[in-house]
Amino acid sequence: MDLRIDIVQRLLESSRQYTLSLLEGLSDEDWFWTPAATGATEAYGSHIAWQVGHIAMAEYGLLLFRQRGRAEVDLDLMPGSFRKRFAKGSQPSPDRAAYPQPSEILLQLEKIRSQVLLELPTFAPASLDEPLDPPTAGYATKYGAMLMAPQHEMLHCGQIGVLRRLMGRAPIR
Q1: Which residue range forms the structural domain that includes residue 79?
Q2: Which residues neighbour 66 within 8 Å (Cβ) at sequence distance 6 or greater?
């Protein structure tokens, strides 16, 4: 296996372990909890359900779509309604009915990760240096998108961690 693919797999594994540790023991209500209004803001504006759904949507985009375009399996992996609800720039809604149940969000997260792990070793090492059209972060190549996926997940782990602490929960690390 290409060393770069191996690095990505290891980073994906560690970031997902951390994500799941943050979610352990949370109730469905906790997934939709938002902090009380403070100062000039009405609310923090996010909840764990949006954070986890967004991680799933971004992983699909960075590790599958940006690598190989659309595939038949994508209809199940990333339905349009899921993508729109959790896309970059989408606004988390306090309306719980606007979201899938936490178990469904977790299932989507797992389905995407399973497909990533299935396809990742099949990507040709030479293709990793192919440029990507904006928007990109870090390196504007397919490999750069791969590296961004676990970084992006950890960024949202930080937000989940803050929400947990604001709920009064003990830190994980």
Answers
A1: 3-33+42-166
A2: 132, 142, 145
